[in-house]
Amino acid sequence: MDALTLQGVRIGYNGRTVVPRLDLTVATGESFGLVGESGSGKSTVLRAIAGLGADWTGRIEVLGAPRAHRRDRDFARRCQMVFQDPYGSLHPRKTVDDTLAEPLAIHGIGDRGARVEAMLAAVGLDRRFRFRFPHQLSGGQRQRVAIARALMLEPRVLLLDEPTSALDVSVQAEILNLLKRLRAEQGLTYLLVTHNLPVVAFLCDRVGIMRAGELVEVAPVDALRHGRFTHPYAQELFAASGGGVQ
After folding, report:
1. How far are the Cα atoms of 88, 215, 219 from residue 39, in angstroms, in the given order?
2. Structural domain contains residue 108
3. b/e per residue, 122-135, with b = 16+ CB within 10 A?
4. CA-based nearest residue to 88, from 134, 52, 138, 140
5. Is 146 a domain residue?
6. Dihedrals phi, psi of 57, to nearest 5 degrees
7. In what order do the strands lie in the sheet with 79-82?
8. Which domain holds residue 23?
9. 182-221 burial, b if ≥16 CB within 10 A, otherwise e?
10. Is 167 exposed, middle or buried (0-12, 13-18, 19+ CB in 10 A)?
11. pTM > 0.90: yes or no
């Protein structure tokens, strides 16, 4: 069973079509990167899957279950999203404990204190961070909390929207290493949106190139290292990155 399947998906925003048609499959356990210039529609795809944009048609399946347009409690147990800005994605008046315990309370899951501390440990934060507020954390620590929140319900799929772009370069590597470790330890599937080709090369198995709402090419991530793209835009994007990534 594939983790994500999009068939004939059209996505609109503010009355205009952003993605005219998208067909995409992400295998269970795979890490797939979507790249493209700003406005190409890549973040719009994540928002449609996550249920943050209702103006879409076609078929979206997550772990074999169709994605409904309405809010779906069961969906939250299968799929979660990590946002770009750790400064904006955490409620400023809620402690880390409040933030991590909230999804457990909504879904009636007990043993919350132990689960919160276990998840903090999983993302590399010790228990002294549990009752701090976001303004008492660094950017990297906030993003670790955001990742922990996304994992509290033990989803199998994570949607990652530029998860390191708002962080200092020195912190980006720490978060990328964390995401790579969590994927291996928990058997997660990632759909990553980014403009940073080295990030895709480090974290992903395959890459999809988007332009003006269309998926123009899908290739193994090894193509980023050797420039083995066939579509002219993909070749142009590769050349603009400096002609190769490690």
Report:
1. 21, 13, 21
2. no
3. bbbbeeebbeeebe
4. 134
5. no
6. -130, 165
7. 79-82, 157-161, 189-193, 31-35, 206-211, 214-220
8. 4-90+155-240
9. bbeeeebbbbbbbbbbbbbbbbbbbbbbbbebbbbbbbeb
10. buried
11. yes
Residue 56 is which amino acid? W
In a domain, 116, yes or no: no
> Could you tell me if 116 and 128 are in contact, meaning their C-beta atoms sit under 8 angstroms apart?
no
> Any idea what the CATH number is for the domain that residue 42 is in?
3.40.50.300
DSSP state of 136: G
The pLDDT profile of the chain, 246 residues, written as one tens digit per residue, is 899 999 999 999 888 899 999 999 999 999 999 999 888 899 999 999 998 876 899 999 999 999 988 777 889 999 999 998 888 889 999 999 999 999 999 999 999 999 999 999 999 999 999 999 999 999 999 999 999 999 999 999 999 999 998 788 889 999 999 999 999 999 999 999 998 888 999 999 999 999 999 999 999 999 888 888 899 888 888 887 765 555
Token readout for 174 is: 């720490």
d(C-alpha 36, C-alpha 196), whole Å: 9
Q: What is the dihedral of CA 179, 46, 202, 27, to 10 degrees?
A: 90
How many alpha carbons lie under 13 Å from residue 61 in its C-beta half-sphere? 15
Identity at 120, one-letter amino acid code: L
Query: In sequence order, what are the residues at sequence separation of 6 or more whose Cβ sits closer than 8 angstroms to the Cβ of residue 70?
Result: none
Asked, for residue 11, whether it belongs to a domain, the answer is: yes
Into how many domains does the chain fold?
Answer: 1
